[in-house]
Specification:
Blueprint: H1 4-11, H2 13-16, E1 39-50, E2 53-64, E3 68-72, H3 79-86, E4 94-99, E5 103-104, H4 110-116, E6 118-121, H5 133-141, H6 157-169, H7 185-198, E7 203-207, H8 215-228, E8 233-237, H9 241-247, E9 250-255, E10 258-263, H10 265-269, H11 272-279
Parallel strand pairs: 3-8, 3-9, 6-7, 7-8
Antiparallel strand pairs: 1-2, 1-4, 4-5, 9-10
Helix pairs in contact: 5-6, 5-7, 6-7
Bound molecules: adenosine-5'-triphosphate (ATP) and magnesium ion.
Length: 281
C-alpha cells in the first residue's frame, strides 16, 4: 500500500499539472494558485440575469482552503447557476469571482478554469463506458480526453501508483478491470469523481451527488466526500438534508440568488427565515 506521505506528495498540485510547467503547451495559463490567505474561492457581489430574472442576486461566498461546504436551498435558488459562474460556463452581469488571491475566474474560459484546478462533477457522468475503470482514470490523467493514443503510452510507475491510489479512494479497487458500463449507478458517479481527482483539482464542485443512489451508496459517497476535504476544497450542492447533515460542517443556504443563512446544520435548520423559505416551497 502506498503510504500517506507518498499520497500527499502526489497530490501536491504543483507537481501534477504537467502543463503548468513553464514553457509547456499551456504555459499561457501557468498561474499558480495563491491561497496565502487560506481562502480558495471568493465570490463577491455576483449577479446573473436571464431575461431580466435574477438567478443570482448579489451573491457572496467564501470557501476556505480544504473545507467541505454544503450549499442548500429550494429549487431555483441559483445553486447550479453559482457553479456555472465559478466554472466559467456563465458570465456574471456583475461581481467578481476569484480562485485564490489572483485568478479572476470571470476573465477565464471554462477550459482555463478547469486547467487551473477547479473540477466539476456533473450529474450525468462523462465516463467512457467501453473502457475499464483503470483506463478511464488513465485517460483522465491526460488533460485532453480526446487523445486516445495516450491509452497506449507507457505509464510511469508514479502514474500507475497514482491511479491505484485514486481507485482505492473511490472504492473501486475490486472493479479496476471492469468496463465502466458494468458499474452500478453509484459506482459510475464515484468513477467520475476519480477522473476529476486525476487532474488534482484544488476545488471540487459537486452538484446533487447522491441523486439515484441506494442508501449504501449514499453513505459511502458521504465518506468519500468527507475524505477528500483537507486535500481539496469541496463544495457540495444537495437537497437531501440527512445526507447534508452527515457531511456538513458549514452549510450555506441560498434563496433567490442570495445567501440567506450560513452556519452549522443546526444553526441553519433553526433559522426562522430558512424555515419559512422551506415551508413555502
Ligand atoms: N440558461 C437559463 N436560462 C433561463 N433561466 C435560467 C437558466 N438557467 C437557470 N435559469 C433559472 O435561474 C433560476 C436558478 O436556477 P438554478 O438551476 O441555478 O437553481 P438551483 O438552485 O440549481 O435549483 P435546483 O435545486 O432545482 O437544481 C431558476 O429560476 C432557473 O429557471
Ligand atoms: Mg440545480
Amino acid at each position: 500500500m502506498p503510504s500517506k506521505s507518498k499520497f500527499k506528495e502526489v497530490m501536491r498540485r504543483d507537481r501534477v499539472f504537467d502543463f503548468m510547467v513553464p514553457g509547456g503547451r499551456h504555459a499561457v495559463i501557468a498561474k499558480q494558485l495563491d491561497i496565502s490567505h487560506d481562502i480558495v474561492l471568493y465570490v463577491e457581489g455576483i449577479s446573473v440575469s436571464f431575461d431580466g430574472f435574477k438567478a443570482l442576486n448579489d451573491l457572496n461566498l467564501y470557501i476556505n482552503n480544504g473545507e467541505l461546504r454544503c450549499i442548500i436551498g429550494p429549487n431555483g435558488a441559483g445553486k447550479t447557476t453559482m457553479m456555472d459562474v465559478i466554472t466559467g460556463k456563465t458570465k456574471p452581469d456583475a461581481g467578481t469571482a476569484f480562485f485564490g488571491q489572483t485568478m479572476d475566474l470571470t476573465a477565464m474560459s471554462e477550459y482555463e478554469i478547469a486547467a487551473a484546478g477547479i473540477g466539476r462533477k456533473f450529474q450525468k457522468p462523462t465516463i467512457f463506458p467501453e473502457h475499464t475503470v483503470f483506463e478511464n482514470l488513465e485517460l483522465a490523467m491526460h488533460c485532453d480526453k480526446r487523445v486516445w493514443t495516450t491509452l497506449f503510452a507507457r505509464l510511469s510507475s508514479a502514474q500507475q501508483d497514482r491511479i491505484l491510489e485514486i481507485v482505492d479512494t473511490i472504492m473501486l479497487a475490486a472493479q479496476i478491470n471492469l468496463q465502466a458500463k458494468n458499474l452500478s449507478h453509484g459506482q459510475k458517479q464515484w468513477l467520475e469523481i476519480g477522473m476529476l481527482l486525476m487532474q488534482n483539482p484544488q476545488l471540487l464542485l459537486v452538484d446533487e451527488p447522491i441523486a439515484g443512489m441506494t442508501q449504501q451508496e449514499t453513505e459511502r459517497t458521504a465518506e468519500l466526500l468527507t475524505s477528500l476535504a483537507g486535500q481539496h476544497s469541496v463544495v457540495v450542492v444537495e437537497h437531501d438534508m440527512e445526507f447534508v447533515r452527515s457531511i456538513a460542517k458549514t452549510v450555506t443556504v441560498l434563496h433567490e440568488g442570495h445567501v440567506l443563512a450560513e452556519g452549522s446544520m443546526d444553526e441553519v435548520q433553526n433559522n426562522q427565515q430558512v424555515i419559512e423559505v422551506y415551508l413555502g416551497e
